[in-house]
């Protein structure tokens, strides 16, 4: 049974573990637990078929790989910046609005943390 509320597990991303040209069956599964939880959240069974999770993970890894390659091609300094990703998804309204929403939420959280740290710093003096 998948525990979709567990935040303690961490997944490390090692460049050596994931080979670009490795067959899909040989790739290390890094998103399985999260995908199971997402599938359950979107109406699948609490324990979806392993084959379904593996297929979805292969699709996710391929999508991330392709987007990263494209972002590296359009980037100027050999690095990926947020604007590169926004440029790539600009014609997909759903993805674009979600990225915009997440960026705004991130900015609000950053401001709230800064205000909290200022209050905490002022009270400790």
From TrEMBL:
Positions with biased composition (Acidic residues): 11-20
Protein name: Transcription initiation factor TFIID subunit 13
Bias (Basic and acidic residues): 1-10
Organism encoding this protein: Biomphalaria pfeifferi (Bloodfluke planorb)
Keywords for the protein's UniProt record, in alphabetical order: Nucleus, Transcription, Transcription regulation
Subcellular location: Nucleus
Family: Belongs to the TAF13 family.
Source taxon at top rank: Eukaryota
InterPro entries per UniProt: Histone-fold, TFIID_TAF13
Subunit structure: Component of the TFIID basal transcription factor complex, composed of TATA-box-binding protein TBP, and a number of TBP-associated factors (TAFs), including TAF1, TAF2, TAF3, TAF4, TAF5, TAF6, TAF7, TAF8, TAF9, TAF10, TAF11, TAF12 and TAF13. Interacts with TBP, and more strongly with TAF10 and TAF11.
A biological process term (GO) from this entry: transcription by RNA polymerase II
Gene3D superfamilies: Histone, subunit A
């Amino acid at each position: 049974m998948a525990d979709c509320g567990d935040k303690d597990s961490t997944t490390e991303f090692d460049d050596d573990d994931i080979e670009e040209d490795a067959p899909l069956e040989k790739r290390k599964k890094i998103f399985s637990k999260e995908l199971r939880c997402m599938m359950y959240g979107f109406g699948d069974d609490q324990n979806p078929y392993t084959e379904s999770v593996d297929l979805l993970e292969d699709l996710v890894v391929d999508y991330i790989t392709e987007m990263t390659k494209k972002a590296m091609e359009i980037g100027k300094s050999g690095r990926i910046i947020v604007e590169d990703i926004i440029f790539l998804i600009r014609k997909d309204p759903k993805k674009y609005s979600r990225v915009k929403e997440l960026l705004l939420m991130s900015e609000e959280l950053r401001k709230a943390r800064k205000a909290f740290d200022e209050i905490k710093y002022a009270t400790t003096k």
